[in-house]
Structure formats: C-alpha cells, structure tokens
Amino acid sequence: MTTLSALIVPAATQWSWDRYGPILLESIGQTLTMVLLTMVFGGIGGLLLGLALYVTRTGGVLPNRAVNVVLNLFVNVFRPIPFIVLILALSPVTAAVVGTAIGTTAAVVPLSIAVTFGFSRIVEQNLVTISPGVIEAARAAGAGPWRIIATLLVPEALGPLILGYTFVVVAIVDMTAVAGAVGAGGLGSFALTYGFRRWDFLTMWIAIGIIIVLVQLAQFLGNRIARRILRR
Fold first, then answer.
1. Which residue, 101, 112, 96, is CA-closest to 33?
2. DSSP letter string over 57-105?
3. What confidence score (pLDDT) does residue 62 get?
4. Rounded to the nearest 5°, which phi and psi values hold at 128?
5. How many other C-beta atoms can be found within 10 angstroms of the C-beta atom of residue 152?
6. Residues 145, 55 contacting (CB under 8 angstroms)
7. What is the pLDDT of residues 163-200, one digit of tens each?
8. Can you say whether the dihedral through the CA atoms of 142, 144, 145, 147 is positive or negative?
9. N or C: which end of the chain has fewer CB within 10 A?
10. Which residues touch 167 (CB under 8 Å, ≥6 apart)?
11. Does the predicted TM-score (pTM) go above 0.85?
12. Cα distance between residue 144 and residue 62, in whole Å
C-alpha cells in the first residue's frame, strides 16, 4: 500500500520554474487584480453604506428611522451568507453585469458586494466611537450635516478606518482563494489545481507562502499608514 509519505516526497520533486513559473505569475496577477478592484468598488461601497448607517440612526446627523431600518435589514441579510454560496447565488447578476459568471473579472462582482456589506459595519462601528460633543460643537459653529460628514466624521475616524481597510484586504485575499475554486483563477486556484489535486505539496505551499507574504505586506502598510495618521 502506498503511504502518505511516499505520495508527498515524490511530489516535491515535481516543482520547476519552467513548468509552473508562468502560471504562478499569472495567478499572482489574478489575485492582485481581484484584491485591488474589490478594494476600490467594495471599499467605496462599504464606506458609503457605513456612513449611511451611522448618520441615519437615531440621534445621527441625518436621522431617518425608516431608511436606517431598511439599510440594517440589507446588511443583516447579506453579511452572514457564506461567500461560496453568495458567488453561486449572484451568478445571474454577475453575468448580467460583466457578461459571464466565470473568471477573474466576474469574481470581482460578488467580492465587491460581500465587502460592501461586511466593511459597512466596520465603518459604522468606528464612527460610533466619535465623541458626540465634537459633533455638537460643529453644529454650534454652524456646520451643516454634509459638511460635518465630509470634514469631521471621516477625518476623525480615518486612522481606525485605515486599520479596517487593512482587515478587509486580508479577508479579500481569503475570499479570492474561495473564488478560485469556482473558476476565478488566482493563487487559491493555483494551489488547488497544481498542488492539492496532484499531491504536489511543494507547489501548494509555495502558493500558500506567497499568500502569506501578500497578507503581511498589506498588514504592515496598513498599520504604518494608520500609525502616522493617529499621531497627527
């Protein structure tokens, strides 16, 4: 009977740059594309939705109970859905938006929607920490609701928001691996297709190592930027 070690050791000898290098570079590019595009669309969407949740709550800058209830309902419905299920459920929407439900570009649609609803709560929670006295002082100085939002709320919470964006980047990298399992490409798909399914554990761990490096870089940059902002 073939032992597990007998399967693993020969697989390690299968790696070569000529064989996997071009595919690996393409996979890295696909992962970065998904992460960057999702951060743009999902990041902006999450920021706007989080602001809307905060300003429309009772005692907010633009209180509106009906709007706040509807927004909370949408977030609470979509946020708990497992991402693999969300990808499949949104396939018709994805196909209508980009013309296909499969591929790197198509994956950006469900990724952006998932990040929008997830990040909105992070934005709302960070805005809640702003002292009500600061907002009241701005009102007393004659600042209107939109000026308070643009010049007070976002700048006051910018440092924590940067940390929130950093957390979201890490989550997106994780979700791209899931998306790769359903045809989106990227490092997750590379590890699954050329590593696990072929019992080539060296190839799989190379992909995992690159994912870890990308996450560490994102965390380092996010922490550094947030630290500088918080010092000001």
1. 112
2. STTSSS--HHHHHHHHHHHHHHTTS-HHHHHHHTHHHHHHHHS-SSSHH
3. 86
4. -65, -25
5. 18
6. yes
7. 888 888 888 888 888 887 667 788 888 888 887 777 87
8. negative
9. N
10. 122, 222
11. no
12. 10
Angstrom CA distances, 210 to 38, 180, 182, 185, 188, stand at: 19, 15, 20, 15, 10
Query: What torsion do the CA atoms of 55, 58, 61, 65 make, to the nearest 10 degrees?
Result: 60
Q: How many residues does the chain have?
A: 232
CA–CA separation, 85 and 72 (whole Å): 21
**Cα gap 79→91, rounded to integer Å:** 17
**Residue that is written with structure tokens 């009906």 in the block:** 66
Q: Could you say which DSSP state residue 15 is in? A: -
**pLDDT on residue 70:** 93
> Which backbone phi and psi does 186 adopt, to 5 degrees?
95, 180
Tell me how far apart the alpha carbons of residues 101 and 200 are, in angstroms, rounded to a whole number: 29
Type of residue numbered 66: A
Q: Tell which wins on pLDDT, 149 or 90.
A: 90
Q: Calculate ∠ Cα 52-50-149, nearest 5°.
A: 60
Enclosing H/E stretch for 130: none
| Two structure tokens written together for 159 | 């440092």
- DSSP category for residue 232: -
Q: How far is CA 28 from CA 136, 146, 180, in A?
A: 48, 41, 12
Q: What are 180's two structure tokens?
A: 């790769």
- For 75, phi then psi, to 5°, come to -65, -45
Contacts of 119 (CB under 8 A, 6+ apart): 42, 43, 45, 46, 47, 49, 50, 164, 165, 168
State the Cα–Cα distance between residues 60 and 62, nearest whole angstrom.
Answer: 5
